[in-house]
Amino acid sequence: MARSALLNVMVQAALKAGKSLSRDFGEVQNLQVSVKGPSDFVSQADLKAEKIVREELLKARPTYGFLGEESEEIQGTDGAHRWIVDPLDGTTNFLHGIPQFAVSIALERNGEVVAGVVFNPATDELFTAERGGGAFLNDRRLRVAVRRVLSDCVVGSGVPHLGRGNHGKFLVELRHVMGEVAGVRRLGAAALDLAYVAAGRFDGFWETDLSPWDMAAGMVLIREAGGFVSDMKGSSDIFDSGSIVAGNEYVQKALLEVTNRPVPTR
Ligand code: IPD
Ligand code: CA
Ligand code: CA
After folding, report:
1. Is the CB of 156 under 6 A from ligand 1?
2. Which one of the ligands is nearest to 88 CA?
3. Pairwise CA distance, residues 229 & 245, whole Å
4. CATH number for position 181
5. Is residue 264 included in any domain, yes or no?
6. Structural domain range at position 165
7. pTM for the whole structure
């Protein structure tokens, strides 16, 4: 599989940050049993990973903008390009010693995401995609799942929690979705969840209250694997709305309809 120079830069940055996270993940497992717990240590791991990604990307393309979860946005002198980075997606999993987390790096060109990398160092799974070049898991070409009816489908989502999201609205969505599908999963790292849709592991996915760095890389992975994404209203303003519905042509449409059903009266 031939990767462009840009995608290579992204992959190298993800691998380097992944190495650092991997080391720190080992330490988190020790800290679970300490009195202080691993919280402060995890924030440091997160910041360290973003610093690594940022340095790698800006070294290779000093004029590009940079939007990362953990630092001030850099407006590049090149108005067309922007990196969108979540150095550690799945922080709660990481903190609890659950090996479901990732580094997510995307490249936006003129407002469109054109390349994405999602790397889970705990499983050594590297998801990559470039517009027009297909999506890959390590060296294997990816396609979204082919199931057409929700009753056969396993779909992922994100569950709001203490201090986050609209609990009532989510319960209505879930109530409608769970009555239609073969299973619902909450794995806890949105960037990886979207990569799983690209890989055909999830037939579909929906979540609200996300940020661009949670979704950018996953969006291009899904599109390049033949899938579709929109926001919860069916529009392409995914970053503005912070919501996403994904799947193949059939599942994406069906999930959109089901998650938008009104509050049941009984
Ligand atoms: C979170 C994860 C999680 C999603 C949250 C995100 P973080 O990102 O992607 O799955 O449900 O809304 O904020 O905080 O671990 O980078
Ligand atoms: Ca995130
Ligand atoms: Ca994060």
Report:
1. no
2. 3
3. 6
4. 3.40.190.80
5. no
6. 150-259
7. 0.97
